[in-house]
């Protein structure tokens, strides 16, 4: 399963929720330096979706705010959960 996210690095706290032009907004405390924000995005999304961080892959946009995320293992409720997070 693939979906798009919009990353907000250097946020006050890690959070997932909201919609930006059809992409799920993911705020992370980590700076956008040396892949730290990407790693934080993987961990935050994994916690929200109930999967392991290693099963969350950044397949496009490693150096930008807009990314395509792929779940290697897709829980049954992943699609519903992502839609619910976009509506927050």
Task: Name a few traits of the molecule.
88 residues, alpha+beta, 5-stranded mixed beta sheet, 33% strand, globular
Summarize the SSE layout with pairings.
Layout (H helix, E strand, L loop, with lengths): L1 E7 L6 E6 L2 E5 L8 H14 L6 E5 L5 E6 L6 H10 L1
C-alpha-based Rg, rounded: 12 Å
The biggest sheet, with number of strands, parallel, antiparallel or mixed sense and barrel status, is: 5 strands, mixed
Distance between the termini: 21 Å
Q: Provide the low-confidence segments as ranges.
A: none
Our count of helices gives 2
Short overview:
With 88 residues, the protein is an alpha+beta fold. Helices cover 27% and strands 33% of the residues.
Would you give an account of this structure?
The protein is α+β, with helices and mostly antiparallel strands and 88 residues long. It has helices spanning 36-49, 78-87; strands at 2-8, 15-20, 23-27, 56-60, 66-71. It has a five-stranded mixed β-sheet with strand order 2-3-1-5-4, with helices on one face.
């Amino acid at each position: 399963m693939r979906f798009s996210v919009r990353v907000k690095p250097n946020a006050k706290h890690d959070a997932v929720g909201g919609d930006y032009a059809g992409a799920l907004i993911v705020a992370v405390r980590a700076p956008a330096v040396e892949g730290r924000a990407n790693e934080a995005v993987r961990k935050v999304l994994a916690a929200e979706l109930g999967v392991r961080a290693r099963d969350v892959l950044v397949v496009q946009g490693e150096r930008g705010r807009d990314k395509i995320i792929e779940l290697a293992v897709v829980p049954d409720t992943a699609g519903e959960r992502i839609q619910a997070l976009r509506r927050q």
